[in-house]
Amino acid sequence: MLPIIADLYTPLLAICCALLIKPYWTQKRALCFIFALLLVTLFAGIEVFFGWWFSMNANFSSHTAVVMVLVLGLLRVRLKAGFMAWLSVFPYAFLMTLLDYHSWFDVFSTMLICLPCYWLFPRSYPQPKFS
């Protein structure tokens, strides 16, 4: 049952993100998601070529990278929903470590590498006004 939950997490998160972002969907935002996903995929390919994680007896978590793109995109559009999605990454990471798919180092290092994707997405929630 746990492997099924682990396999369903990313598609369910993607559906939730799509539903939450739908009112804010623009062509620019769609291109940002595509570009961010291409960047993390490109990085995964570069990692396979150079073997940085492998040299540390670890591996790059492509599933975590996709999840982080979704979460970071959601954070830029719907802050509270994005924060809840970000919190959901930790039980997912625990599940991946429990199933021996990845280590905590794999997950956190992949999350760290994906953080710059946050600035690719346009912001939609109102900004506080300072007077």
Estimate percent helicity.
over 70%
- Quote the average pLDDT: 89
How would you describe the shape? globular
Percent of residues in beta strands: under 5%
Number of helices: 6
Structural class: mainly alpha
The largest sheet, given as strand count, sense and whether it forms a barrel, is: none
Order of helices and strands: HHHHHH
- CA radius of gyration is 15 Å
Q: Report the count of strand segments.
A: 0
Q: What order do the helices and strands come in, and which of them pair?
A:
Blueprint lengths: L1 H20 L5 H24 L1 H4 L6 H16 L1 H20 L5 H11 L17
Describe this protein with a few key phrases:
73% helix, 131 residues, mainly alpha
Could you walk me through the main structural features you see in this protein, from its secondary elements to its overall organization?
- The structure is a single chain.
- This protein is mainly alpha-helical.
- The chain has 6 helices and no strands.
- α1 runs antiparallel to α5 (79-98), α2 (27-50) runs antiparallel to α4 and α4 runs antiparallel to α5 (79-98).
- The longest helix has 24 residues, at 27-50.
- The relative contact order is 0.18.
Summarize the structure.
The protein is mostly helical and 131 residues long. It is 73% helix and 0% strand.
